[in-house]
């Protein structure tokens, strides 16, 4: 009783060394079984309570106690317990060895997961940056499109303004040409009035006046009238002169009247010209700001025209490069077609040569067959001749019979033998040599 209590106390004090020290556990179980055999129930309870500390022995403790109560099974139970103890120790050792490996695997997996998470974060950041750059590029593209549209609108407006300015310039040129034509017409009218009207009208009036003088008027009265007309017209001129008097000065007064008429016509034409010039000057003075604006617009349009010329030059250079590339492509295509045609021609030549070669091979085969047939015919002829010769020899070697007509039979045989030979030769000549004769003819 005391020993079992001590063993139970040892098991209770050191439950962790039960798996490491099998002897102690076995002795403890043996002592427990011995005590149980004596009928002590308290120690069995202590042993079961101490053994319950082991996780793998709890389930089978009741079964073991039942087996231990039976007589003669202590050694068997001890052996079974020792075997189970060994298996448990081995499992614990294996689990202890596998735990560091599992921990290493877990740590490696955790590190790999951390790296993958970090890569995922970096990829997400890069994707976000790329999306932002894409949005920025889209915004820049839209802004460029808007700017391009604005520039196109401005260029269209400038082109329209330039066209309007050119139209206004054409209108101004037309007006100036009209004014110049009017001035020229006025000058022509003035010259015509100076040359024709003055001469014609004054001379006609003088002639009429002279005619009237011839009708009975006095010369003095005519001179007085001319003098009065001159005195009335002289204040209208810029250089008034004195009127000559007297009867002898009638022609001078007429010339003076003519000059006065010319001066008056020149003054009238100069007044008209000055009025037209004043009108033109007033029209020009009314719109200096517009002219300045038009000049500025013309300068801007000239700059834009320069830019457009540069762009057109660049486009022309690009078009030249494009045309050169197109020409190169056309040349390459033409060369390709020529090469393809040459290749087709060479293929046709090769096919014709192959056909000629096949024909030559066929001809050679035919000739070889004819040669074999000729050889066979010659062999047949030779065999027939040998056979006939052997038959003749055999017939000659036969013994002479005792019949009196045997001599005649022998002579008949001898006479018939060459006939047979000749017949065989003629038949062979008729039938056999025909192919080789044809072959010889073809060879010739």
Automatic annotation (TrEMBL):
GO terms (BP aspect): Golgi to secretory granule transport; vesicle transport along microtubule
Segments forming a coiled coil: 106-133, 169-196, 336-384
Keywords on record: Coiled coil
Keyword field contains Membrane: no
UniProt superkingdom: Eukaryota
The protein, known as: Bicaudal D-related protein 1
Taxonomic path: Eukaryota, Metazoa, Chordata, Craniata, Vertebrata
